[in-house]
Amino acid sequence: MMKIGFFSKLSQVPVKTLRYYDEIGLLKPLKIDPFTGCRYYSVSQLSRLNRILALKDLSLSLDQIAHLLAEGLPVEQLRGMLRLKEIEIEEEMKVEQEKLARVAARLRQIEQENEMSNYDIVIKKVDAQEIASLREIIPAYPEQGQLWEELEGVLGEKKIKPIAPCFTLYHADEPEIDAEVCEPIAKNGTVLEHPRVKSRSLQGAEMATLIHHGPFATLSNAYEALLKWIEGNGYRINGPYREIYLQSPSESGNQQDHDVITEIQFPVEKI
Amino acid sequence: MMKIGFFSKLSQVPVKTLRYYDEIGLLKPLKIDPFTGCRYYSVSQLSRLNRILALKDLSLSLDQIAHLLAEGLPVEQLRGMLRLKEIEIEEEMKVEQEKLARVAARLRQIEQENEMSNYDIVIKKVDAQEIASLREIIPAYPEQGQLWEELEGVLGEKKIKPIAPCFTLYHADEPEIDAEVCEPIAKNGTVLEHPRVKSRSLQGAEMATLIHHGPFATLSNAYEALLKWIEGNGYRINGPYREIYLQSPSESGNQQDHDVITEIQFPVEKI
DNA sequence: CCTTGACTCTCCACTTACTGGAGGCTGTAT
DNA sequence: ATACAGCCTCCAGTAAGTGGAGAGTCAAGG
Prior knowledge:
- The structure is a homodimer.
- By secondary structure, chain A is an alpha+beta fold.
- The first copy, chain A, folds into three domains: 2-73, Multidrug-efflux Transporter Regulator, Chain: A, Domain 2; 75-116; 122-270, Multidrug-efflux Transporter 1 Regulator Bmrr, Chain A, CATH 3.20.80.
- The first copy, chain A, is 39% helix and 26% strand.
- Chain A is built from seven helices and twelve strands.
- Chain A has helices at residues 4-11, 15-23, 45-57, 62-70, 75-113, 144-157, 219-232, and strands spanning 2-3, 31-32, 39-41, 122-126, 129-138, 167-172, 177-184, 198-202, 205-213, 235-237, 241-247, 261-270.
- In chain A, the strands form two sheets. In chain A, strands 4, 5, 6, 7, 8, 9, 10, 11 and 12 form a nine-stranded antiparallel β-sheet that branches. Chain A has a three-stranded antiparallel β-sheet with strand order 1-3-2.
- In chain A, strand 6 and strand 7 (177-184) form a beta hairpin.
- The radius of gyration of chain A is 30 Å and the shape is elongated.
- Chain A binds a DNA duplex through helix 2.
């Protein structure tokens, strides 16, 4: 029978932690003096504490440990938990490794350019989205203008308001540019009756994205950076990419070209 | 200029998180309506948010990110941080890997024995310790009895009280047993004047430990388990080991043999 | 005999990066 | 008129402790 300080010295576990284990019911002292409130532990409780520490070391949570100990340490359950833990740790290591690769890649990039890249590439899931769109083969990227006018015309006529920034879906760049100009619309079951403008829904997807400030003519830098990143970080493009016109030059008269803001999204998957 | 919900949709960052970033000053909305309290964001703030997400992805803390952004993203500093991060992640991966090894080892052990081992091995740092001790070559382990009597006698004579459980330090088992019986004492500068009993201080060390319940005769199982663990988990013994008599058979008359509690500690280092 | 130091206790706040909910406001659509 | 969506603030909770304040008890030292 000893007080908490001595027990702490024997076990090399801080007093605070022992009190915490008492509080959550993981390791109750053998007895508590009802007058002083002092906790008294016995030497034999060291084994339980050691068992707790050993399980904790296998990165089980205190909660799990408490359950295991409460149920008399059923081998079956422990085995199951450890199997899960094994998978979990492997998973985590994979994540860490990828993170390490990204850090290393960024470092290399800094060393090379000796300045911050202007682009911050982010992976994000984008939701499924209902769109009204018009798809056509065009000879050059700026030729979309007419498509946009046609699309806006039809939507205006039908009094349909876009609910998010418009974008172009590029299904192919070579040998010809296969572009689909899109306006996100609310989903309400009705089908758009029109020979050229159709409504459909896009699936959600994981996207590698970046945001570009400046005129369309400088977009190629952004594409270069993004494609390089995708290749360098072990992803593969698996669908048509999007060019989202967050702030287009025409939106307000006093906007300079460098206020044009465009987001590029490539749907990707891990190799 | 848009409200928080739209900004959240564009960035795919939850509204709650955006409010949180506002609260900690990481990403303040461009303006707040003084009457409704509504937050208004501009499209161009998406880049800052993206930058935040990109840095977060490199597992910098929000605090670090806030500092970096506040100081105009100095390349030097970022480089330093990333280098540190790199080392940190590598460190973490090593830890994970060892944990994985331990989990796997435990699983193998369970498969083999199909029951929980009675021993829970724990690595812990033990503190430096002042001791009074008596060292001698003995023909067999139980022959320590006389040494203990002699040590206790001297300490009793000098009115020195041990401050922790006594233990034996084994410097060698072969070809002869080189044992040192020890009593932890308080450090107070004075030297113990005695021809055979000396005081000295033991350094702190990292120890692989387990706790054994039962008579000394069954200690060999504990040693076997501990040595197997040390070998199987990539450690190496680097000093004399200790046998700590937490609860000795002589301590109280009514104690049965199975109430004897002994801790074994091997000083180890990672290979 | 008084003070100091060593232990002990309880209770509270703080850590990270959010997440969930309650309760209340306004503006729009039915 | 009412339902709803969207916005607001404030509060609580997460895991596993850590740190500190303030109070009580005990023994040793001056």
